[in-house]
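Lecture notes, continued. The same structure-token format from the folding unit now serves as the input rather than the output. Read the line below as a description of shape only.
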């Protein structure tokens, strides 16, 4: 029996309102994250299927951590003690067409939610590159898609149900508790167990996706704003070689006046004549449809198709958020490292994201450009590159993705997150004894403030 079957089976069997105690994972292999680079420090995974079970379990434990779909590349989700999985709590709880909101259980994934919403005539504003991740886990780490007018996925959250360390159930909303809410949504798993999330929705929409090949960096430098404004969501893929962006992915909405008019030439890049994978040499079979074929939002916003899990265990990832006004300087700074970065890199993706008000979001009060690295699964080769890249990006106060690999010091994090003291204070209120803290959080967030 694999882990997935194990969790599903027990999630189904254990419908009692009492605290759920599952057997520790007893398979021969250790419990790992999606990429396989992190072996979690415990195999003890408990599964809850109701709010009552979450409350009971939280009260009964001195230390625990919520576990989502395990897609983070660092040990932000790790625990030495026990995990609580809300995987079976993956239902749509309510959909309010008038208020344009949907409320889902915290175990819901975007892959499951999106077709349900679409069938009801609704859409989310954006999705990440793959749909397989949990809504609660994605919001907790400020996961994002692309589009200069689109906030990260957590900005769609307008309400949360949260079980705090003493088992108290809080219902927070953007309208009624704006400050606390802004502090809680990107909570890094440090504030409690999220059991429900309410998300903004909008009328469903159709999209087209076009890909262009070989955009010279000289054109990018001169026309960055026009390139980023060309679609609802724009992604630039580069291997940093030959002074060019290998592929430009333009995802455009089809409403009147907004659709992208595909020309054969786009700032020196050529319109692709077949579907492409972000790494051109790989088959595009598992990528979302391109070549301008119309399709629903949830089959165009991600790069990878819903029914397919891309390259499990065959990559590592890092990503840095830079204030939008420094986009070109930051991109050129990384390009200067092309010889060092090249051998360990599979591909880089450059995206833009709109500013938000979420305290621990890397886009807090700043529009951002993100420079993402999909690495070969070779940590000894990747590890020394991270401080080199981080040094180049330090003048721009680059912030790392909370769920990806980085070496930026805790001191620097404190310097660049001006709401960190408020976040620590909020955490001390919800979790005074550090029940939800782990090594990652103690090091990066709580080191100077720990009791
Ligand atoms: C192939 C791949 C592609 C990716 N693409 C993107 C991308 O396009 N954009 C992007 O920004 N990121 C991307 N990521 C990163 C990833 O989406 C995020 O790191 C996200 O957090 C993963 O969600 P998860 O449910 O797997 O979280 P996990 O790794 O399981 O947990 C992450 C954190 O969330 C907390 N958490 C989870 N559930 C709860 C809950 N119910 N209550 C409280 N806290 C909770 C955990 O405690 C932990 O701190 C990608 C990752 C992979 C593997």
């Amino acid at each position: 029996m694999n882990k997935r079957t194990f969790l599903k089976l027990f999630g189904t069997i254990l419908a009692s309102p009492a605290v759920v105690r599952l057997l520790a994972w007893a398979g021969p292999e250790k419990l790992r994250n999606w990429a396989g680079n992190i072996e979690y420090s415990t195999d003890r995974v408990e599964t809850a299927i109701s709010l009552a079970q979450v409350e009971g379990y939280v009260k009964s434990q001195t230390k625990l951590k919520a576990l989502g779909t395990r897609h983070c590349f660092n040990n932000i989700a790790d625990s030495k003690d026990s995990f609580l999985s809300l995987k079976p709590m993956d239902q749509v709880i309510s959909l309010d067409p008038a208020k344009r909101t949907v409320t889902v259980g915290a175990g819901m994934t975007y892959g499951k939610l999106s077709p349900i919403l679409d069938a009801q005539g609704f859409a989310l504003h954006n999705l990440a590159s793959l749909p397989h991740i949990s809504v609660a886990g994605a919001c907790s780490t400020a996961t994002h898609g692309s589009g200069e007018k689109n906030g990260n996925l957590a900005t769609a959250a307008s309400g949360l149900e949260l079980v705090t360390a003493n088992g108290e159930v809080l219902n927070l909303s953007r309208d009624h508790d704006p400050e606390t809410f802004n502090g809680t949504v990107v909570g890094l798993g440090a504030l409690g167990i999220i059991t429900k999330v309410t998300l903004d929705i909008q009328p469903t929409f159709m999209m087209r996706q076009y890909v262009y090949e070989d955009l010279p960096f000289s054109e990018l430098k001169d026309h960055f704003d026009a390139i980023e404004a060309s679609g609802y969501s724009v992604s630039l893929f580069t291997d940093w070689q030959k002074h060019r962006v290998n592929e430009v992915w333009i995802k455009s909405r089809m409403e009147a006046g907004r659709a992208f008019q595909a020309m054969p030439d786009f700032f020196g890049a050529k319109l692709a004549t077949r579907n492409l994978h972000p790494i051109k040499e790989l088959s595009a079979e598992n990528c979302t449809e391109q070549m301008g074929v119309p399709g629903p939002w949830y089959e165009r916003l991600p790069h990878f198709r819903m029914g397919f899990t891309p390259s499990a265990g065959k990559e590592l990832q890092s990503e840095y958020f830079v204030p939008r006004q420094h986009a070109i300087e930051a991109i050129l700074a990384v390009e200067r490292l092309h010889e060092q970065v090249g051998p360990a890199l599979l591909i880089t993706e450059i995206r833009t994201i709109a500013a938000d008000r979420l305290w621990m979001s890397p886009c807090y009060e700043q529009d951002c450009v993100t420079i993402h690295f999909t690495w070969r699964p070779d940590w000894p080769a990747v590890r020394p590159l991270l401080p080199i890249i981080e040094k180049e990006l330090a003048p721009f106060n680059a912030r790392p993705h909370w769920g990806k690999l980085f070496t930026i010091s805790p001191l620097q994090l404190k310097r660049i997150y001006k709401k960190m003291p408020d976040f620590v204070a909020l955490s001390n209120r919800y979790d005074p004894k550090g029940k939800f803290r782990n090594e990652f959080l103690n090091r990066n967030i709580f080191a100077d403030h720990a009791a």
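Point for the exam: The longest strand covers residues 206-216.
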